[in-house]
Amino acid sequence: MAAKIAAITGDKSTYIKNRAFDNEHYKKLIISFINQYGSASRQDIDNLLLDKLSDALDANQKKKKVTNLLYEMHKKDQMIINKGSNKKPKWVLL
Prior knowledge:
Helices cover 60% and strands 6% of the residues. The chain is mainly alpha-helical. It has a two-stranded antiparallel sheet. Keywords: ATP-binding, Helicase, Hydrolase, Nucleotide-binding.
């Protein structure tokens, strides 16, 4: 419905910027990064994702979104594991 309203009002680009991709999209980006480079720090993941998250989120919400994605990938999906520390995580694939 929101996409139709954006099309009618001519605000399609703003709609796309504010629309969030689903979590699976972001998880695939993280997995691709780790596959390419062997591991990923939190800074790597922030650099990868923060500018791709919805513009409707503020900076703190974006950081929390990344935290939640990493938690889900680690605990729920069991796709990644932290081989570093809590302060300096080093995410690798399981």
